[in-house]
Write a structure and sequence with these properties.
The chain is an alpha/beta fold. It is built from ten helices and twelve strands. It has helices at residues 33-43, 59-62, 102-119, 126-147, 155-158, 172-179, 207-249, 270-278, 332-339, 359-371, and strands at 4-8, 22-26, 51-55, 67-69, 75-76, 81-82, 192-196, 260-262, 292-296, 305-309, 344-347, 353-356. The strands form two sheets. It has a seven-stranded mixed sheet.
């Protein structure tokens, strides 16, 4: 059986005593997002940097590997075996019901170590735990579900629904699927060196070598996307948590019923707002929900301000209370005349967002909008 060995290193590392690279095994043939990500995640760890990847389904060859991912019919973390295709497999992430794929398995066991290594956080810190859970919720679980054929909604709830448009071509899993057939990829990512035992590969790369190159491109796509999310959550989303909490606790200063939230700078607020609302004590659960969020367009002094209606849910395009219908689609003087507020810039035709030239103007728009029928 032709096999290709892929020598992989994700970044320059300090000089060390020369040792044999760790051998990772996964299957050859058609590849998917889950093993592409799983391999990249492993490569981020010192144990696997550098490492060599063996893509084969030959049990004898896989038995020589330090770690085997998405093939072999065995899940045993003590032996570094991470397959999920066996009939008896039912492992899930804590407090989740979605069965794990190879990506989820690797993330379950190594996710905190990867987060700590990339961020400098302590592996046992509360912030690491928050990021570990967040990245699973927003990134890994969808890959697990896709690979295991789990639909986003029960079929009984979607049987009579018709999509307005197709969204199948814009997921990471679909992009990885496309790479299986992309003959334009002729070289691996620059961070990866390919070694093969095929004597003809240098002058005439065979189908397996070409497939391996496409796999590495898929792994790079999945891994860099994961790291981009991790960086964003660590440097932007996580620090915003305390900012949103302070604004939420002070919301009654803006409106007696706490329906208006104000930030002094642009802030990723949605996730945290829904969390704080759901975590509120029973005595406050009957209070009105936050309807509008105000913030400057940028941190530049004198920046214009935005007023944004809070969505019904995090992923919804429907607002809890859109800006008043008579304002929608209007701009500048016409909007000022209709709303009775100075400095208005615009209100979107759907009413989900609007703008004003000043903080006070945005506040006045919010004050009028909360009582407008």
């Amino acid at each position: 059986m032709l096999r290709t060995l892929l020598r992989m290193s994700t970044s320059p590392v300090p000089k060390r005593v020369k040792t044999s690279p760790t051998l990772i095994g996964t299957h050859n043939g058609h590849f998917h997002a889950d093993e592409a990500l799983a391999i990249y995640l492993l490569r981020l760890l010192p144990t696997y940097n550098p490492s060599t990847l063996l893509r084969t389904r030959d049990p004898a060859l896989l038995s020589t590997c330090h770690t085997v991912v998405d093939v072999g019919g065995e899940y045993d973390a003590a032996r570094s075996r991470y397959d999920h295709h066996q009939r008896t497999f039912d492992t899930t992430f804590p407090n989740k019901s979605t069965k794990l794929s190879s990506a989820g398995l690797v993330y379950l066991h190594f996710g905190k170590a990867i987060i700590a290594q990339r961020t400098g956080l302590d592996p046992s810190s509360p912030d690491t735990e928050i990021l570990w859970q967040k990245l699973y919720d927003d990134f890994i679980e969808a890959i697990d579900a896709n690979d295991n054929g789990i639909s986003l909604y029960p079929s009984s709830e979607t049987a009579n629904l018709t999509k307005r448009f197709s969204d199948n071509g814009i997921t990471l899993s679909s992009l990885v699927s496309d790479l299986n057939y992309d003959t334009s990829i002729s070289a691996p990512p620059t961070s990866t060196k390919i070694e093969t035992n095929d004597p003809n590969s240098a002058s005439n790369p065979g189908p397996q070598a070409a497939e391996d190159t496409r796999f590495l491109a898929a792994s790079d796509l999945m891994g860099t996307s994961f790291l981009r999310k991790l960086t964003n959550y660590h440097t932007t989303w996580l620090p915003a948590r305390s900012t949103v909490l302070a604004a939420y606790q002070n919301r009654h200063e803006n409106d007696p019923q706490g329906r208006i939230l104000v930030f002094r700078e642009p802030t990723p607020w949605k996730d945290h707002l829904y969390t704080f609302e759901s975590d509120s004590s029973p005595s406050t659960n009957n209070e009105p929900q936050v309807l509008y969020v105000l913030y400057p367009e940028s941190a530049t002094p004198g920046a214009k301000w935005r007023i944004q209606a809070v969505p019904v849910t995090r992923d919804s395009f429907e607002s809890r209370k859109p800006l008043p219908e008579p304002w929608r689609g209007l701009r500048d003087e016409e909007l000022c005349a209709k709303s009775g507020v100075e400095g208005c810039v615009f209100v979107h035709a759907s009413g989900f967002i609007g703008g004003n030239g000043s903080e006070e103007g945005a506040r006045e728009m919010a004050r009028r909008a909360v009582v407008e029928m």
